[in-house]
Write a structure and sequence with these properties.
By secondary structure, the protein is an alpha+beta fold. It contains 31 helices and 20 strands. Strands 1, 2, 3, 4, 5 and 6 form a six-stranded mixed β-sheet that branches. The longest helix is centred in the N-terminal third of the chain and has 35 residues. Belongs to the relA/spoT family.
Length: 737
């Protein structure tokens, strides 16, 4: 570079630095300015030899990120300094985290360390690692939420300056942004940044669609401005009469949300009716905010007819992001629906700055902050080591982006849950112990199944019982990450407990067959029954899936091991098939795929990109021409499919025969006597792996007939139950229908 070019660049850097101090949302003290200046000097030194792909000096990037943090998000001087330093440790060998701590203190060092950890995850990784890395990144939320906020600002600037990158890199970064960073920004309350991230994401993932909508918005802008002016003029006189201090703005809907509306409603651009919203922002002290919001609502609805089902009162019940506003949709001039958003200046700041403004206004109030509550709740799900990372990110993403419903506890306390949450989710949101002991739920006074989907305004009373415990079906009823992770942990514990009982049973049974239970015999049994782990073996013995007959077969095959080995070598294929037929009940493990919550059997093809095999964690993807294609959850294409075509994704799983539950109808006849029904129900309920669904008895002239519907895991259990029922005094016949 020539001296003249270097001089020009230095002037631009100085200008960008001064701009940063000028636009800060917070008032910066002399101390603050000193801190930011020191951070700027260190960043200049660390990045002096670096340039970006576009050719400009690298320092422009940390400056731009710091400016987003200061102006758009409104964080404090500590965060601005951390934003300037966010790449220093990673990109320069001259500075370590301990150097940063010595120069700037513990807080800045902690934030920079969090950001360095995230960056180091991203180097040369394949997409299948993405979920695990997102999970690690989200763990930094607990260190300091500012880590994630600066990371979002970093991502926004990268998205704004991505033109010089390779096409495939652009698509990868844009998909990742749509998949996790935009929902995160939404959840933290950074709505403006979320909108920009979504639009930029669309620009690189679907450029034709993006440019088409952008051009159409430009074409219709003049007409829209005219319409908003006309709409505002009608309200202006009435608002002025009330001596209100306000501004009315038109806000175009984002390109991404217009695209989503076109997809969901199956309409063209011209048919999307609410391409813009009108925002009324009024000045008020905190005491009169609510009163004035409803006063403005009253004025708007005096002039324009409201759509009653489109009223959203986020003032009485703010969103868990802290967002407050009153949204109404009214029939404007020329018969067009218009969304009107009513906010005070304080509410508007919180909507635009999210976390930072929330804290600015929170200083005097003692109310627990919803963001903190959310982070604490999220932490439980994050720290569960058993959760599959892709599952976790999917669940987490649902909870990030989902709309909210508000439901009441029996005492009238208001709880916020994601839309689609069930009575079981509500139970776990109260407390883990309540969730674990849930027996049923009353919604608005009526007894409802645990799978009942809750609506805003419902009052829910959870019924608990000491004997209640989670079962595998609960995973179909629960939608929130918190509930699902707790249920999975409980089921694992249950499996371990049954496994421990099974181990003792197996020890006794093998002793009778003169075999010692040790590591060698356990490994032999695991291989013989084609299982994966010793726990699978003990669990099946505990359930009764592996019974005496099967163990005797194992014993005889063991004593004839040499012959079996030779036979196996000669006719290996035939033997495998024969064994499969003989042990159908055990080896039917993972033999067929089912789709959706209803677990339907549908036609499918296995995808070539990841070649799933029975037992893998999988999902179905509805293709345009080839029907359902099955992919592994950690398939390299999984994240892009999930992020771009979520509406085509189907739940899928391989069925494990020992886990599947079957409904069995039992018919009993015999001589009636007092206490007979009690004897029957005692035997059914004492059988720990049998769940009674319905029961009916009739008595006629001293004879009785009865029907019982039970749910069992396998044939062995039902056989044992029938044998026990036959032994009851007075029972003549017991048959399975």
């Amino acid at each position: 570079m020539t001296e003249e070019a270097i001089e020009k660049e230095n002037i631009a850097i100085t200008k960008a630095y001064k701009e940063l101090l000028k636009v800060s949302y917070r008032t910066l003290s002399t101390e603050d300015k000193k801190l930011i200046r020191s951070a700027f000097d260190v960043a200049i030194d660390a990045h002096k030899d670096q340039r970006r792909k576009s050719g400009e000096a690298y320092i422009f990037h940390p400056l731009a990120v710091a400016k987003i943090v200061a102006q758009e998000i409104g964080l404090d001087a500590t965060s601005i300094a951390a934003a300037l330093l966010h790449d220093v440790v990673e990109d320069s060998e001259d500075y370590s985290i301990s150097d940063i701590e010595g120069m700037f203190g513990e807080t800045v060092a902690k934030i920079v360390n969090g950001l360095t950890k995230i960056s180091s995850l991203k180097k040369d990784m394949d997409v299948s690692m993405q979920a695990e890395n997102f999970r690690k990144m989200l763990l930094t939320l607990n260190d300091d939420v500012r880590v994630i906020i600066i990371k979002i600002a970093d991502r926004l600037h990268n998205m704004q300056t991505m033109d010089s990158m390779r096409d495939d890199k652009q698509v990868k970064i844009a998909s990742e942004t749509l998949y996790i960073y935009a929902p995160l920004a939404h959840r933290i309350g950074l709505y403006n940044i979320k909108t920009e991230l979504e639009d930029l994401g669309l620009k690189y993932t679907e450029p034709e669609v993006y440019n088409d909508i952008l051009n159409k918005i430009k074409e219709s802008k003049e007409e829209q401005d005219k319409y908003i002016k006309e709409f505002s003029a009608v309200l202006k006189n009435s608002l002025d009469k009330e001596l209100m201090d306000y501004t009315i703005k038109g806000r175009p809907k984002s390109i991404f949300s217009i695209r989503r509306k076109m997809q969901v409603q199956g309409v063209s651009f011209d048919e999307v009716y609410d391409k813009f919203a009108v925002r009324i922002i009024y000045k008020s002290d905190e005491d009169n905010e609510k009163f004035l919001a409803w006063k403005i609502y009253s004025i708007v609805t005096d002039h324009f007819r409201p759509n009653p089902i489109r009223l959203r009162d986020w003032i009485s019940s703010p969103k868990s992001t802290g967002y407050e506003a009153l949204h109404i949709t009214v029939m404007g001039p020329k018969g067009r629906w218009v969304e009107v958003q009513i906010r005070s200046e304080r509410m508007n700041e919180i909507a635009e700055k999210g976390y930072a403004a929330h804290y600015k206004y929170k200083q005097n109030s003692e109310k627990e902050d919803s963001l903190e509550t959310w982070i604490n709740r999220l932490q439980e799900a994050l720290e569960n080591p058993d959760t599959n990372a892709v599952d976790f990110v999917e669940q987490f993403k649902l909870n990030l982006y989902s709309k909210e419903i508000f439901v009441f506890t029996p005492t009238g306390e208001l709880k916020s849950l994601p839309k689609g949450a069930t009575a079981l989710d509500f139970a776990f949101s109260i407390h883990t112990e309540v969730g674990m002991k849930t027996r049923g739920a009353k919604v608005n006074g009526k007894l409802m199944p645990l799978s009942h989907e809750l609506q805003s305004g419902d009052q829910v009373d959870i019924l608990t019982s000491e004997s209640a415990k989670p079962n595998a079906n609960w995973l179909d009823y629960a939608t929130t990450a918190r509930a699902r992770s707790k249920i999975k942990s409980a089921l694992k514990e249950d499996k371990k407990r049954i496994g421990e009982e099974g181990k003792e049973i197996l020890r006794r049974k093998l002793k009778q067959l003169k075999i010692t239970l040790n590591e060698a015999s356990v490994n032999e049994l695991v291989n013989y029954f084609k299982l994966k782990t010793s726990l699978d073996l003990f669990y099946r013995v505990g359930l009764g899936t592996i019974d005496n007959t099967m163990l005797k077969e194992y014993s005889s095959s063991r004593s004839n091991a040499l012959m079996s080995f030779i036979k196996n070598k000669i006719t290996r294929k035939q033997t495998v098939k024969k064994e499969d037929l003989e042990k159908d009940e055990v080896t039917a493990k993972y033999d067929s795929l089912v789709f959706g919550k209803e677990e339907e059997k549908l036609d499918y093809k296995l995808s070539n990109c990841c070649n799933p095999i029975p037992g893998d964690d999988v999902f179905g993807f509805l293709t345009v021409n080839e029907g359902i294609k099955v992919h592994k959850k950690n398939c390299p294409n999984a994240l892009s499919l999930q992020s771009n075509y979520a509406y085509r994704i189907m739940q899928a799983k391989w069925i494990d025969s020992s886990q599947q539950e079957f409904l069995v109808k039992i018919v009993l006849t015999g001589i009636d006597h007092i206490g007979l029904v009690n004897d029957i129900t005692n035997i059914v309920s004492e059988n720990m792996h049998v769940d009674m669904k319905s029961i009916s008895f009739e008595s006629n002239d001293g004879l009785f007939s009865g029907k019982i519907n039970v749910v069992v895991k396998n044939n062995t259990i039902i056989k044992k139950l029938l044998e026990k029922l036959k032994k009851i005094n007075g029972i003549d016949k017991v048959t399975r229908v």
